[in-house]
Design goal:
binds glutamine, alpha/beta, 11-stranded mixed sheet, Amidase signature (AS) enzymes
Length: about 500
């Protein structure tokens, strides 16, 4: 992109090319200030990002649906809010929404052929919250089908490319959102994380992302994969941006029975706190073989930076770490097989064009509508829940889940925060693991345990590995420690600039 590519609709009262240039790396706070000072309108800002999406998306495939008219109508409404003095944080800011969130009047596909004709009649709880503050939906992002995957290759809409290297995967399942932010097609995005789907793509694309404590963000209208693990959260360039996003996203929702009723908090309140005396736990099980040398180097350097900031490190142990992937691949498919039974070709979604009777219609609709990975999960889930296997697999996995949660409770008696790598390797090549599910599942080695325990986890950029591919630092907090985690991340981002880097070829 060249600066002049942005300057299509003069006359404007500011230097568009200069603004476009700075805008790409502006924080949400800076964009809000530009809007508040009337240096730019939301219609203009949205228009700039839409132009960038139009230019880049054919190469990256980060968005499934872009609807300029709908986005610009929202931007116009936001401008009216600003003009009447009713601006709130994020008013008029374009946000990319993962296509798992039901969005009224928009196609909501969940990356599946099954929902390729589904226009949602209602907004998800999270979308309502963005609408209430006057944020602008800039488009629906690509994702692994029903959020099942770690590479975005299971999407019915084709794979997303990693902005740092077009031959590499962006991670998944929120790979479209991660790519959109990394390529600066949106200043921020939403994701969901069942076993790592916010943190792993954030790590692989060099952005920041947080999976909140289970129950903090409403799951109403967020298409269910594994309900006891699914949690929505923000993806953005910096911890400061994540705090502003989480302030909008988090909150009680009576329509989600697992939503937590807590006093609302300002997640940005502790950003500036010094880290003197912070106790960082380093799980000995994380720093073993399996982690590649380039990732280890970057993570160790980041921990060194924290020591300079006044933090201390202590070794902790999470002895059941190795059980988290097997436990997850019993529980998540079990829940998925139940959740996905609603897609039967009757109520909404794909229906086979030809069939003989009702059963044949169900079978054909599901056979045609679901991709291979989704079918694999449904089969595993049905198996582990069936009579005779339920005790051996499902109940056993539930017991181990408890042990995994207890490991964290013991570790948090010794430290304030836990750190390690987000992923064992940097972004892998497209096609490298798509034929080997077990290899693919190992991508979430470090992230899955937090979902099983319901704990918050985040990933922030911590440098680059071989081939200039981003490395993510994983930060795990205790329940409801989001403000503290964002503080810990923000302080690192005050002394490093990894989070501000963007692929050279994409600078305006
Ligand atoms: N990669 C994991 C899976 O395939 C996690 C996905 C997610 O967090 N949605 O299930």
């Amino acid at each position: 992109m060249r600066p002049h590519d942005f300057g299509i609709h003069p006359p404007l009262f500011y230097d568009l090319s200069r603004l476009a240039n700075t805008m790409l790396n502006s924080s949400l706070k800076q964009l809000s200030a530009l809007l508040a000072a009337k240096k730019i309108s939301s219609v203009e800002l949205t228009g700039e990002f839409l132009k960038r999406v139009k230019a880049l998306n054919p190469d990256y495939n980060a968005f499934i649906t872009v609807d300029e008219k709908m986005s610009l109508a929202q931007a116009q409404a936001a401008d009216a809010m600003i003009a009447s003095g009713q601006a709130r944080p994020l008013t008029g800011i374009p946000i990319a929404q993962k296509d798992i969130f039901c969005t009224k009047g928009w196609l909501t596909t969940c990356g599946s052929k099954m929902l390729s004709n589904f226009v949602s009649p209602y907004d998800a709880g999270v979308i309502e919250r963005f609408n209430a503050v006057g944020a602008v939906n800039i488009g629906k992002t690509n994702m692994d089908e029903f959020a099942m995957g770690s590479s975005n290759e299971t999407s019915f809409y084709g794979p997303v490319k990693n902005p740092w290297d077009i031959t590499a995967v962006p991670g998944g399942s929120s790979g479209g959102s991660a790519c959109a932010v990394a390529a600066r097609m949106a200043p921020a995005a939403t994701g969901t994380d069942t076993g790592g789907s916010i943190r792993q793509p954030a790590a692989l694309c060099g952005i920041s992302g947080i999976k909140p404590t289970y129950g903090l963000v409403s799951r109403y209208g967020m298409i269910a994969f594994a309900s006891s693990l699914d949690q929505g959260g923000p993806m953005a360039k910096s911890a400061e941006d994540l705090a502003l996003m989480l302030n909008v996203m988090a909150g009680f929702d009576t329509r989600d029975s697992t939503s937590l009723q807590r006093a609302s908090e300002d997640y940005a309140r502790d950003l500036a706190k010094p880290l003197q005396g912070l106790r960082i736990g380093l799980p000995k099980e994380y720093f073993v073989e399996g982690m590649s040398a380039d990732v280890a180097r970057a993570v160790e350097a980041a921990i060194g930076e924290y020591r300079k900031l006044g933090a201390e490190t202590v070794e902790v142990s999470l002895p059941n770490t190795k059980l988290s992937i097997p436990v997850y691949y019993v529980l998540a498919p079990a829940e998925a097989s139940s959740n996905l039974s609603r897609f039967d070709g009757v109520r909404y979604g794909h229906r086979a064009p030809e069939y003989i009777d009702l059963n044949d219609m169900y079978q054909k609709s599901r056979a045609q509508g679901f991709g291979a990975e989704v079918k694999r999960r449904i089969l595993i889930g049905t198996y582990v829940l069936s009579h005779g296997y339920y005790d051996a697999y499902y109940i056993q996995a539930q017991k181990l889940r408890r042990l995994i949660a207890q490991d964290f409770a013991a570790a948090f008696a010794q430290c304030d925060i836990i750190m390690g790598p987000t992923t064992p390797t940097t972004a892998f090549a497209l096609g490298e693991k798509s034929g080997n599910p077990v290899q693919m599942y190992l991508s979430d080695t470090y992230t899955i345990a937090t979902n099983l325990a319901g704990l918050p986890g985040m990933s922030i950029p911590a440098g680059f590995g071989d081939n200039n591919r981003p490395v993510g630092l994983h930060i795990i907090g205790n329940y409801f420690a989001e403000a503290q985690m964002l503080n810990v991340a923000h302080q690192y981002q005050q002394v490093t600039d990894w989070h501000m880097r963007m692929p050279d070829k994409l600078t305006a």
